[in-house]
Amino acid sequence: MTAQPLEPRVSRLEGAFEQIVERLGDTNVRLERLEYKVDANYHALDAKMEQRFVGIDQKFSAMEQRFVGIDQKFSAMEQRFVGIDQKFSAMDQKIDSRFHFLIGTYLTTTIALAGIFFAALFPLYRHIAQ
């Protein structure tokens, strides 16, 4: 060890510690200011983001309402097509029943004419065949 007395060494250490404490105190104050600025900026940014998200949510809600309106229009169109399909089905059934009626009338008329023709020609045929 050195031959210096202990008191001057201790006072030099105390002076060094005081300088360190002062510097740490200054650093602490600067860190507190920085922390305050960071917190203030964070809160401002958070508020801006919240406003933007609210705006985006409103836009999405408006778009959703538009899609609901479009969906309702498509549902109305689908109902119209169902109504038209039902009308065509009813017309098809009428056409089928009328077609069957016409075929029946045609067959009946043909059979009746064949019967009349046969009734008119059968006596002539019997007369020729004798």
Verbal overview:
It is a single chain. With 130 residues, this protein is mainly alpha-helical. 95% of the residues lie in helices and 0% in strands. It is rod-shaped. The N and C termini lie far apart (170 Å). The model has no long low-confidence stretch (mean pLDDT 87).
How are the secondary structure elements laid out?
Elements: H1 6-129
Indicate the percent of residues in helices: over 70%
Helix and strand element order: H
Task: Give me the count of strands.
Answer: 0
The portion of residues forming beta strands comes to under 5%
Terminal CA distance? 170 Å
Low-confidence stretches are none
Number of helices: 1
Rg, Å, rounded: 54 Å
Shape summary: rod-shaped
Task: Provide keyphrases for this structure.
1 helix, mainly alpha, 130 residues, 95% helix, single chain
Quick synopsis:
The chain is 95% helix and 0% strand. The protein is mostly helical. The model has no long low-confidence stretch (mean pLDDT 87).
